Amino acid sequence: MTAWLRVKVRHKLGLPMRSTPDEGVVVQDHVERRTVLRGGLIAAATTAVGVAAGSALALARRPVVSPGDSASPGAGSGPVIAAAADIAVGSSKSFTAPNGAPAYLLRPAPDTFLAFNATCTHQGCPISYVGPGFRCPCRSSTFDENGQVTGGPARTADRNPSKGHRRPGHDYLIQACHEST
């Protein structure tokens, strides 16, 4: 590729295809600078096209949710977490929230689904679902199934609970609201 670029630069400058013995060092340096510049421009253009194509492909693969698919007006929409049938009443499922944070989906009753941030509000340690609530392994803080503190040094309730909803006509849970900190 470099040899081809060098030939193109020499042709554009009106020089022979190959350097000659009587050609000065200044001319050869000029050819090399232009060759490197053209190579850089080609690399930058190729990268820009690759990024644009990758972005277009990523956007094309995003699921499209129409406003009528939400469980209730204004309920929002989000990624599919799990099939409702896969989560038994009284159990939980871990998942990753849209912001990349660990989270848990609980099913305390047949028609109720709750999603919680799985990070302790005390020092940010990852919490685990144990029985009807959560426990932090770092300082033994405990939270009930509603995210309220029941023991330990954590003083505030779970920061980001959100309710899960079913899409009408679908048996999947979606996160109803995006978490904010």
Description:
- The chain has 181 residues and is an alpha+beta fold.
- The protein is built from two helices and ten strands; from the N terminus they run ααββββββββββ.
- The chain has helices at residues 2-12, 25-61, and strands spanning 80-83, 92-96, 102-109, 112-117, 128-130, 133-135, 142-143, 149-151, 162-166, 172-175.
- A six-stranded antiparallel beta sheet has the order 1-10-9-4-3-2, with no helix packed on it. Strands 5-6-7-8 form a four-stranded antiparallel beta sheet, with no helix packed on it.
- Strand 7 and strand 8 form a beta hairpin.
- Helix 1 (2-12) packs across helix 2.
- The longest helix is centred in the first third of the chain and has 37 residues, at 25-61.
- The protein starts with a helix and ends in a 6-residue tail after the last strand.
Distance between the termini: 51 Å
Backbone shape? elongated
Total count of strands: 10
The average pLDDT is 75
Largest sheet, if any?
A: 6 strands, antiparallel
Please, how many helices?
Answer: 2
Strand order of the largest sheet: 1-10-9-4-3-2
Q: Which value, in Å, is the CA radius of gyration?
A: 29 Å
Low-confidence runs? 65-76, 163-172, 174-181
Residues in helices, as a percent range: 25-40%
| Series of H and E elements | HHEEEEEEEEEE
Strand content: 15-25%
**Structure classification:** alpha+beta
Question: What keywords describe this structure?
Answer:
181 residues, elongated, alpha+beta, 6-stranded antiparallel beta sheet, disordered C terminus, 4-stranded antiparallel beta sheet, 2 helices
